[in-house]
Amino acid sequence: MAKKTNKAIQAEILDVLDNIRFYIQKDGGDLKFLKFEKGIVHIQILGSCVNCALIDITYKDGVETILKEEIPQVKSVKIIQEANPTDKKQPYLQINKISPFKK
């Protein structure tokens, strides 16, 4: 059997993520595939998933398990929780705009 290219594996990852995205979006969250490197899928979480207490259950136990079952080359999932203020999907309360102390 020929070894899959990184590009082919990434296409499979994107397909799997697209199939499960609906369930995450139902709760106001979303995910963004960043890269696949050395068996690790890097995913940024968005929306209500940022700082969610159930992040390990949803992503590590859920998304990682599904990806590993579907794609043998996937060894783990790394979750990136960086907030991106330009992302309209993420709910932000901009304190500096409502602060009574702002001049």
From TrEMBL:
GO biological process, one term: iron-sulfur cluster assembly
Pfam families named in the record: NifU
Cited PANTHER family: IRON-SULFUR CLUSTER SCAFFOLD PROTEIN NFU-RELATED (PTHR11178)
Official protein name in the record: NIF system FeS cluster assembly NifU C-terminal domain-containing protein
One MF term in the entry's GO annotations: iron ion binding
Organismal lineage: Bacteria, Bacillati, Mycoplasmatota, Mollicutes, Mycoplasmataceae
Reported function: May be involved in the formation or repair of [Fe-S] clusters present in iron-sulfur proteins.
Domain NIF system FeS cluster assembly NifU C-terminal: 14-77
Entry superkingdom: Bacteria
Gene3D superfamilies reported for this sequence: Fe-S cluster assembly (FSCA)
